[in-house]
Every structure is written in structure tokens, then in C-alpha cells.
Design brief:
The protein is mainly alpha-helical and 77 residues long. It has one domain (13-73). It has helices at 13-24, 28-31, 34-73. Helix 1 (13-24) packs across helix 3. The chain is elongated. The relative contact order is 0.07.
Length: 77
């Protein structure tokens, strides 16, 4: 399995974690630590990007196929 590492300097880590907490609605009672929460948000973001891309590929392929089919089959003179 591939691994992606993100290195955040210790001096700015609190700012990064606070930013994720503020941007994504961190709740200390249900979300664990801010670090766990931030990691979960990064994972969610990556999954959303993959899903969106795969949907776009399928839609684009279907659109091209439909246009090609229509151009071949629908003849108006």
C-alpha cells in the first residue's frame, strides 16, 4: 500500500490543526483529537476528489458516446 506523508513543522502545527477545526466543524466530544480530525478531513478530501474525477470520466464518456450515436443515427434533411 502506498503512503503519503505530510510534514508540518512543529511551530505551525497548532495553526494548521486550528484551521482544520474551524473550517470543518471540529467537535471535541465526538471527533477525537484535532490531529485525528484533521487527518480524517484530508482522507475525506482525497476520497471526494477521486469520486468526483471518476464520475466526470463516466459522464464524459457517456456524453461522447451519446453524441456520436446521435450524429450517426439522427439524419435530418
Amino acid at each position: 500500500m502506498a503512503k503519503i506523508d505530510i510534514n508540518i513543522p512543529d511551530a505551525v502545527l497548532p495553526r494548521v490543526l486550528d484551521a482544520f477545526a474551524a473550517a470543518y466543524g471540529y467537535n471535541a466530544e465526538k471527533d477525537g483529537t484535532k490531529a485525528e480530525f484533521a487527518k480524517a478531513q484530508v482522507v475525506r478530501f482525497v476520497m471526494e476528489i477521486v469520486r468526483a474525477n471518476e464520475v466526470e470520466v463516466v459522464v464524459s464518456t457517456a456524453r461522447k458516446a451519446a453524441v456520436t450515436k446521435a450524429e450517426k443515427e439522427v439524419v435530418i434533411s
